[in-house]
TrEMBL record:
<feature type="domain" description="Phage capsid-like C-terminal">
    <location>
        <begin position="173"/>
        <end position="446"/>
    </location>
</feature>
<protein>
    <submittedName>
        <fullName>Phage major capsid protein</fullName>
    </submittedName>
</protein>
<dbReference type="Pfam" id="PF05065">
    <property type="entry name" value="Phage_capsid"/>
</dbReference>
<feature type="coiled-coil region">
    <location>
        <begin position="9"/>
        <end position="61"/>
    </location>
</feature>
<keyword id="KW-0175">Coiled coil</keyword>
<dbReference type="InterPro" id="IPR024455">
    <property type="entry name" value="Phage_capsid"/>
</dbReference>
<dbReference type="InterPro" id="IPR054612">
    <property type="entry name" value="Phage_capsid-like_C"/>
</dbReference>
Amino acid sequence: MSEKIARLADELKKHLNDAKTIAAKADEENRDFTDEERSAVTEAMTRAQETKKALDAAKADSSVRAAIADLGDAVGLVDAEAEAKGRREQADRDGYKASTRTSIGETFITSEQYKDLLLSAPNGQFAKDMRVQSRPLGYKDLVTGLSPTSGGAFRTEDYRGVLVGPDRFFRPLTLRQLVTGGTTTSDQIEYARITGWHNAAAPVPEAVTSAAVGSGDPAVTPAQAGVKPESGFSTVRVSTPVRTIAHWMPVTKRALSDAAQVRTLIDNFLEVGLEEELEDQMIAGDGTGENFEGLATVSGTQTQAAVPDPAGKPAGFGKLLAVRRAKTKVRTVGRSVANAVVIHPNDLESMDEISDIQGRFYFGGPAGANGTQPLWGLPVIESEAATAGTAWVGDFRKAILWDRQQASLTVTDSHADFFIRNLVAILAELRAAFGVIQPSAFCKVTLV
């Protein structure tokens, strides 16, 4: 094994181990990748693919050299390659490009295309009934601005590429991290939704008689019989289907071949687009057609009306009070502990800017207007999935997102006339279902 092949093999092993380590950690903790982990895995796999390609090419070159050595003078490739190399070196010394020109035959037998052709035949020999076809080999003598060895050598490109990651074109996604995550292998899910309960727990005295309640004269009371109070809760069985979220985009084969970054950009664009729509469906899905039954559609959630600004307080102060009262309703009526506030960016902006006459900010301000400062002790989740003018306060752990098929990408030219146009379609899709276990654990807040 050559030094180059050994080095590439070690690099490939390192990149794959990096990706496996991150994936194993996420599997062990039974969770999805974080944004940072997803970026690291993508980078590791991209580098692994590039290293694998280089390793295959190095192995192919090594095999061809061995085959050429075995064929020896009968094929004549060794002498031809040495002669062509000598001509190139002489041309470099003399500074004349014309002296590097070899015959078409010599150019072909020393090309990578011919080496690949030999590898396709057993022992480098073609049987008479075998089909022989190599990749195209081009010969350019024109002065062209596209070639870096011709007129293009005088051209300076000001290419900046994509200076930010594709995630910068989308809003941050955090709603998935709030809810309970689950998986399913079916296309239909049935679960029990809690619609009410009665807690009758109370201290109970010791029984003073074994007689049945109501028997005797006077009648035995429940307290005398030591009867424990009965509690209970009511449920309803809910059926929710697994829905498919998908979209696709066309791209030329040339774009994919010439710029690896294009594929990375498209993949991330499509995958993030799926997650963005999923977030919208979890909050605002109306349950019709192929839409989810989102939180805003579920019956039994609580509501908190807008609170007027108190006298002497600045404009918008009532919004802060409305969120606080919603938190109380989740605790007292929903018997739950709220774990977040989901709010539209426009509303969060107006709440950040609430200040007193001395310019002191009540909630946000320059020091804490990044969406991470707690509001009444609750994490603030800034999301366009929430309708402007409203917010959601709740225990989002009592909503479940079942993954049937996480985001996947498929590439094909078998669409319309894409095959004859050198176009491919890149399709991204996921399948999931969403359910709210306890609607009363959520409160919709009207802010205006």
